[in-house]
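Reopening this one. Same input as before:
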Amino acid sequence: MAWFFTEENISGSNYTLVGESAKHISKVLRMRTGEDITLVSPDKTQYECKISLITQGEVTVDIISQKPCENEPDVFVTLYQALPKGDKMDFIVQKCTELGISRIVPMISARCVSRPDEKSLKKKCERWQKIALQAAMQSRRGIIPEVTPCISFKEAAEQTKQNEKTVFFYEMGGESVKKILNGTKPKTVGMFIGSEGGFEQSEVDSVTAIGGQTATLGKRILRAETAPLAALSIIMYETDNFSS
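Same output, byte for byte:
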């Protein structure tokens, strides 16, 4: 299942991969000429290809067929994730990518214990983007989810104005996602998930004041790395994105 992304749209009957993709094909997967791989371009076109040439640092493929990639959900979900402790964010990025997230926005909320400096945050975001790429390849996504630079909670709240629906998952309770969506299928959804300490009431109020709705994940308290996976799964289910 060799699945790769191109940095630009493809035109013509062949394409040459370079850099990490070429290295992965030749050195890690040890593929040979004549073997099949799939490429997905930024315009979500899926190309079935056959390797025609492998040289030092380059892999050239012949385009056999193409079609729109049908592996993407029809709802664009942005995760606003308050930074958890340790390497939990690695896990969150990986699994949310597999489940169909479109964008991940790390943020610093009032109760975040993890508060890396700017230099460390930049390195972390670069690593998270690589994790998203690897998970997108493994799960055969049509896009690579974007992991944005880390922002403040206030900035994240301001961003939600561009979402059709904003769901604020709050440990103190709220409505079910089913009731919030009420049978609708919004095109864009923003979801807020807290760190280990949850959210301050003032943070909840600031998001609900601009149209966000508080939601519950049930009576049990989930870990910081479990909550976003449960929340995203529910949204995907309620918008019919777990159907074949």
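So the earlier flakiness isn't reproducible anymore. For the record, The CA atoms of residues 111 and 198 lie 7 Å apart.
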